[in-house]
Amino acid sequence: MVSTSAVRIGADGILLAVFTAAAVISLRSLDSPTYWFPAFITLSGTLAAGYNLGADVVRVRGGHSLTDGEIVDIGASVTDTHDDATERDGAGSVGARALVLALWLVALPLLGLVVPFFYAALVWLVALLRFQAKQKWLFVVVSVAVFGVFLNVLIVLLEIRMPPAVLTGLG
User: Fold this and answer.
1) Angle between helical axes of 36-61 and 4-28 (0-180°, round to 10)
2) What pTM does this model have?
3) Which of 77, 79, 91, 133 has the highest Cβ tally under 10 A?
């Protein structure tokens, strides 16, 4: 019988191989500015997969199981982790939370119809973090500022032309 630790090491190796192959393909195409982002993602994924594989190998060589304390039941469901106290506190059902999340996802493109997408994304993120995630204002401001800078760098680096808002023509 194959142990779950061996299966996980094998999966880590496959993941590392896939990310390494994607990174090699992306790095060969760096002439185009649009390939910077895939190269960044694949290199980051390769590093993370390599670290994960190395850490797992060290744990196995140290005599530890990779799956102790983890849920490995494929048949586990969302309700298995659902707490009765959560229901009593008014957090709502899984279906209601899924509907609210879907509405938040629909709100972003709708906001992008009225406001240029860059600003719509920032306003949407403020609303999501503050009202849905109920984060403190300091966290919201810092997170949105970092996201705004990162998004702007991607737009400039990849030479993306952002379209104006469809309904108002702003942007």
Assistant:
1) 150
2) 0.52
3) 91
CB 148 within 8 A of CB 129: no
Exposed / middle / buried, residue 106 (Cβ in 10 Å: 0-12, 13-18, 19+)? exposed
Residue pLDDT tens, the chain, 171 long: 677 788 889 999 999 999 999 999 888 877 776 667 778 888 999 999 999 999 999 988 998 887 776 665 555 555 555 555 555 555 567 788 888 888 998 998 899 889 998 999 999 999 999 998 899 999 999 999 999 999 898 888 888 888 788 888 887
Contact 162, 119 (CB under 8 A): no
Q: How far apart are the first and last CA of the chain?
A: 62
CB atoms within 10 A of CB 17: 13
